[in-house]
Design a protein that fits this description.
The chain is mostly helical and 366 residues long. The chain folds into two domains: 9-54 and 143-328, no CATH class; 76-131. The protein is 74% helix and 0% strand. It has helices at residues 9-14, 25-52, 54-75, 78-105, 113-131, 149-165, 167-178, 184-222, 234-251, 254-263, 269-274, 276-289, 294-328, 341-358. α6 (149-165) runs parallel beside α9 (234-251) and α8 (184-222) runs antiparallel to α13 (294-328). Mean pLDDT is 76; it is low at 1-5 and 331-366.
Amino acid sequence: MHVGGSFNPMTSVIRAIRHEDKLTLVDHLDELRARLIVCLAALAVTFGICMWQNHALLKVLNKPITEQSEQRAERGEGTIGQAAALQKAAKATAAETEKALAALAAPASGLPARTRAQIAASLGKLHKAAGGYPHGPPQLQPVTLGVGEPFTTTITVCLWFSLVFALPVILWELYGFFVPALTPDERKFARPILISVPFFFVAGVLFGYFIVLQQAVDFLINFNSGQFNVLVQASLLYAFEAMLLIAIGIAFQLPLVVLGAARLDIVSPRQLRKGRRYAFVACATIAAILPGEAITMVLVTIPLYLLYELSILLAAIAHRSAQRSAARGPSDGGDDGLSGPDRDATSETEQTVQQIIDHVDPTLSD
């Protein structure tokens, strides 16, 4: 049972259980259930917000192919380029026709008044019809193939976004469940890493969205596009974007993984410095696996290698901190695992040994 009173699982969700507390298996299951309820509640709230703003989220995911359709329209490529060229020609023809009809409807044209009135009426109809033309070029929008695919695709996208938005709460509850197994020193080390995980992940997702995703979509859509009528299926597009962004977000966790390995003495800063060449090859390999062209590969390789250098810096800082802590030891008032009578007994024993070493029996001098 819980030390110091009855165990309340909902209270443990708010206040982490201490290292010295003892819980039964049933108490652990109750705590796990309470934390799962909190995670599900966070997912439900973020999912509701995402469903409310689903049009904005879909617009964000559609932006890469929207920009691609604008480029294709300017170059006159594919069906979008042909439609844009036809639209531009129709607008130009309507403008020239309006000028000609306006000249004929003017009194200086010498036409009878009745004829000029008819021309003026036709000019008004033409001007109204020309005003209904689209103001911008046609855009490439994702297509759906099934009756329920727009609904299921929207639900899937909202679930992805809600999981990302609820990630800090989920990680905190996960930390709260496993923290009793950690010592105070391990807890001080684990908490900053846990807090940093969402920030590094979001940084990777933002980098992938603004730098890598557009280049990858441009390359894949334009590859041999003259031989195909390019139509992008919504579910496949969003799955591709999610895979790419999540992969980059996970890759940005490299400094935290290396820092944890350094604190566990799995690797040392010296080993990391010696492995710079291999790390650069590994970063280039990861960038080559991701879809895109040579420019995309360079854009991904550079930040990944910079993250590796950041990992070396963090590992060196952690290594020096561990060395200072080991050098201080119990002599600096640190927690050596002894307290009360045990610590006093140890001090007395050390003093007695010191007296034996430093003092000589007075009778020996006689």
